[in-house]
Structures are given as structure tokens and as C-alpha cells.
Amino acid sequence: MKDKKPGRLFIISAPSGTGKSTVIQKLMETRPNLYFSVSATTRPPRPGEKDGLSYRFINHEQFEELIRSDELLEHAEYVGNYYGTPKAPVLEHIGSGNDIILDIDVQGCKQVKKAMPEAVTIFIVPPSLEELERRLRSRGTDSEEKMQKRLERAITELGEKDTYDYVVVNDSVEKAAQEILEIMARQD
């Protein structure tokens, strides 16, 4: 009997407000055998987010225990909250021959790429900084101070895009998702 081919790990990063979650949702609807790695976070849920689907919402003490017990592929602190990728589900999917997407920031991508150099990295960029600011403001979820921090961080993260295997412009969700599906198909 032929051994099952392992799945592939795709890391998708983008500044906050770029539309990354919407693009990933489109990918998940389109491609079978593609799974989304649910990150853990200490931030409170946004309206409509569900525990275990959007994120695993846990407290700071629980998160710090995951760090101590080496149960995370990567982790970072962002605007006062922890974010991280639980290791076990990712390795299980890859071992079962399923492809998996990690939605993580630049810092997390570097951590995972170091541990798993075979990972394919994709960076999604907004059509412009003005459009990014418009998208962030339309959310209506952040104070002006947090908004400025997100914009400053976005500019820093955009400076890292050339360290990724692929860069995709999200000027249209359908077009960006299609481009990523083509990237995934080239990895076969």
C-alpha cells in the first residue's frame, strides 16, 4: 500500500484590515481538503466570532501554560493580547494528507518557517494604504489610539512582504482567492 502524501502548510499573513479573513473564508469554501488552523488568543471575541471557529478564546494564564508546555508552533503579543498557533492540530492535518492554512502575522510566520521550512508563505497586501485605513475605520471596533497603532504596525509589516514566497494584492476577494488557489495548485 502506498503511503499517504503529507499535506502542505500554507502561511497567510497580512496587515490588519487587508481582508485576509474574507479571502481565507473564500478559499475554504472553494477547496476541499483544506483546513484552517484555529489560533488561540487572549483578546475578547468580536461580534459574530465563535469560540473554536474564529479563535480559541482563552485567558492569559491558559495561554502562558501553552507557551511553557511547548504546545504552540508560534506565538506573539499584539496590542496587549497574545495570539498563537496550537501545534497538535496542524501536525495532525499534515500527517493525514490535508493541506492547512495558518493565518498569522509576520513574526509568527518567521517562527513557523524556522521550525517548518517547507511551509509556503503568502503575504496579502491592500491596494493602497488609504484603502487599508478606510477598511480599518469602517470596522468601527477600535479607538483612535488603537487605530493609529494598527496603521503603524501595518506599515512595518508591509516592509516584510518581500520575505514571503508570494505576494497577493487584495483589490477583489475573488481575484485574490483565485490567485492563492493557483499558488496552492503549483505546489502539487
Characterization of the model:
This protein has seven helices and nine strands. The chain has a single domain (9-186), classed as 3-Layer(aba) Sandwich (Rossmann fold), CATH 3.40.50.300. The two termini are 21 Å apart. It has helices at residues 20-30, 60-68, 87-95, 106-115, 129-139, 144-158, 173-186; strands at residues 9-13, 34-36, 40-41, 56-57, 72-78, 81-86, 99-103, 120-125, 166-169. The protein has a five-stranded parallel sheet with strand order 2-7-1-8-9, with helices on both faces.
Radius of gyration: 16 Å
Low-confidence stretches: none
- β-strand number: 9
Strand order of the largest sheet: 2-7-1-8-9
Topology of helices and strands:
Elements: E1 9-13, H1 20-30, E2 34-36, E3 40-41, E4 56-57, H2 60-68, E5 72-78, E6 81-86, H3 87-95, E7 99-103, H4 106-115, E8 120-125, H5 129-139, H6 144-158, E9 166-169, H7 173-186
Parallel strand pairs: 1-7, 1-8, 2-7, 3-4, 8-9
Antiparallel strand pairs: 3-6, 5-6
Helix pairs in contact: 1-7, 5-6
